C-alpha cells in the first residue's frame, strides 16, 4: 500500500507540482542528451578519437538509476518525534552517568592532590626540624597549608565512610528482607 493512496491524482499533482515540473525538465534534458549521442558520427566518419573513447564512460554515467521518494512533512515530523522518544531517555541516562563519573573523578583527583601535598609536607618537615630537637615545630605557611590539606582529606574520607556505611545498611536491610521471605516460605511450605 502506498503512502499516497489517500490522495486523488489531481491533489498529488497540486501538492508536488514543483517537483513534477523539475522532473519533466530533467527528462527533457536527458532526452536531448540521448538524441545528441545518437547523432554523433562514428569514427569512420571522422569523429575525434577522444569523443569515441569517452562514450562507454558516459554511457555508464547515464545508465545509473537513482530513485528518490518524496515523503510528506507530517510523516517526517512524526518519525523525528518517535526517534526522540526512543533515543532521548537513553541519551539522558548516558549524560547522567557521565556527569556522575566526572564528579567522582574530580573528587578522586582532589583526594590525590591533597595526599600528594601532605606527603610533600611530610618530606619537608624533617629537613626543617633540628636533628635532636623534641620541640614542637613552628607553624609556617607550608605547615598551615598542610593542615588545611589534612582537613580536606579527613573531610573527604568522612564523606566516603558515610557513603560506605549507607551502602552497607542497605545491603543489611536487603539481606534481612531475603531472610524473612525465606522464613515465610519455609513456614508456609
From TrEMBL:
Signal peptide: none annotated. Residues 120-156 are annotated as: Disordered. Its main location: nucleus. Keywords: Centromere, Chromosome, Coiled coil, Cytoplasm, Cytoskeleton, Kinetochore, Nucleus. It holds the Pfam family DASH_Spc19. Residues 158-185 form a coiled coil. InterPro entries: DASH_Spc19. It is found in: Chromosome, Centromere, Kinetochore; Cytoplasm, Cytoskeleton, Spindle; Nucleus. The keyword Coiled coil applies. The keyword Nucleus applies. Belongs to the DASH complex SPC19 family. PANTHER family: DASH COMPLEX SUBUNIT SPC19. This is DASH complex subunit SPC19. The lineage of its organism: Eukaryota, Fungi, Dikarya, Ascomycota, Pezizomycotina.
Amino acid at each position: 500500500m502506498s503512502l499516497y493512496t489517500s490522495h486523488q491524482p489531481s491533489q498529488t499533482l497540486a501538492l508536488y507540482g514543483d517537483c513534477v515540473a523539475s522532473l519533466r525538465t530533467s527528462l527533457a534534458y536527458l532526452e536531448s542528451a540521448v538524441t545528441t549521442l545518437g547523432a554523433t558520427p562514428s569514427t569512420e566518419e571522422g569523429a575525434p578519437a577522444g569523443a569515441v573513447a569517452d562514450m562507454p564512460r558516459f554511457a555508464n554515467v547515464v545508465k545509473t538509476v537513482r530513485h528518490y521518494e518524496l515523503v510528506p512533512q507530517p510523516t517526517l515530523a512524526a518519525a523525528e518525534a518517535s526517534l526522540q522518544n526512543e533515543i532521548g531517555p537513553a541519551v539522558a541516562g548516558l549524560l547522567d552517568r557521565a556527569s556522575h563519573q566526572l564528579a567522582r573523578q574530580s573528587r578522586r583527583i582532589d583526594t590525590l592532590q591533597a595526599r600528594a601535598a601532605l606527603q610533600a609536607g611530610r618530606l619537608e618537615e624533617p629537613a626543617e626540624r633540628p636533628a635532636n630537637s623534641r620541640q614542637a615545630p613552628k607553624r609556617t605557611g607550608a605547615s598551615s597549608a598542610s593542615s588545611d590539606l589534612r582537613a580536606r582529606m579527613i573531610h573527604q574520607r568522612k564523606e566516603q565512610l558515610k557513603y560506605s556505611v549507607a551502602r552497607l545498611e542497605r545491603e543489611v536491610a536487603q539481606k534481612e528482607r531475603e531472610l524473612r521471605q525465606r522464613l515465610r516460605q519455609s513456614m508456609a511450605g
